[in-house]
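Shipment paperwork, digital attachment
Item: protein structure file
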Amino acid sequence: MNLRKIHSLLFVILLASFFACKKEDDPILDDPDSRLNTYLENSLQTLTEAPYGYKATLFTKAEKTFAFFMQFDKDGRVSMLSDFDGNSAVKLQSSTYRLKALQRPSVIFDTYNYISMLADPQGSVNGGTNGQGLFGDNDYSFLKFSGDSVGLIGNKNTSQLLLIKATEAEQKSYLEGGLGQSRQLLTTFMNSHKYPYILVDNKKIALAIDQSSRQVTLSWLEADGTTITNLSSPFFYTPEGIIAPFLELGKNYIEEIKWDNEKKTYILTVAGQQIQVQSNPTPVFPLVLQFGFKKTYSIIGTNNNTLPDGVNSTFNNLWKTVNTNFTSSGRTIRYIEFKLISENQATLTVYYSSGTTNYIADMSFTYTINQNLLKLTDPKRDFSNGNWTSRLAQLSVLEDYILKGPFVLDWVSSSSSKVTEPLGGLSPQSNAADFFYGYLK
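Attachment content:
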């Protein structure tokens, strides 16, 4: 079943759950027991006569979506896989189920299984809220049988469960660890592709996939050049990739995000069109949109006395000189930071130590940022104390550098796998190869 049909079935479920509240509109509860028994028998037959089992999707009120593979037998047992975690994706679990008339004819999972984990009230089990878990359910009312699909709704938390008959090939893929492989493949891809994006009408749209929150987000820059729009959807895994059922691109839903083993990347399918996921060496949007006082980042700096690995800048040699100057004077640099401390004031601070005592030496500036151009004026030594002047013999080359502005503010890429956090840099407008850089904080 394609995603459009899934959305249609979701709509049917929502309508059915609404009308189920009205007893007078419920023919099942008004009919004799014999009809109810027949309905349960037919439901059991539908569940057990799917020769290759069901692929299932569970939508919870916690705004998370989970995938399952289920195979029901006539002896009241169901075999199950789930994309909840790496173990449940590959370890086939057998538990019991039964059909019974509760408020409506229902299937009850009456021994603890992967579905029960989502209904577990202990947040430590499923990462949900203590007392509620992820708002899953252990028993579900039948709402709709439609061709190869069964729609159900949770009797307590109204989570929505969709069962779709699996093909022989799909069953084989699930049972051979396809869900687990899909989870691991996505982890590997996201670790090695820091800033994935898709290209639509020559516009880069950032693609973020957060496996811990199970969210996919598309982000793009609006025509005004400053507004970033985000659109998110929960996702679930399939043996071929992932599906984010509520993610739209333009006026169309994205049908799937599928791994292409030949191209070694993911392919988005939307309205019959295939769009390849590409990777940027730096974030897609200009740094100036996120760097500023009280913005996402306001600091460019290091974590120790070395600059981040894998970056080629002539500033590297200058920084080695500053380190040598301090070492020769019996002192050690701890780290350095350029920081915007207000709407118009910035500081450059060198943190260092002498013996077991820590010190700082800093300068202050008035700054302006116009588009991506940073101008520093009114430089003053010794913003916090007199240490910049005291250490001027060691810091003079750094002072000369910071007075070279104006600077172009931009992202910095690293060739090192050790660098996993975003880097930013200040490039003198007169010499783009001589940029100061560090981790964005």
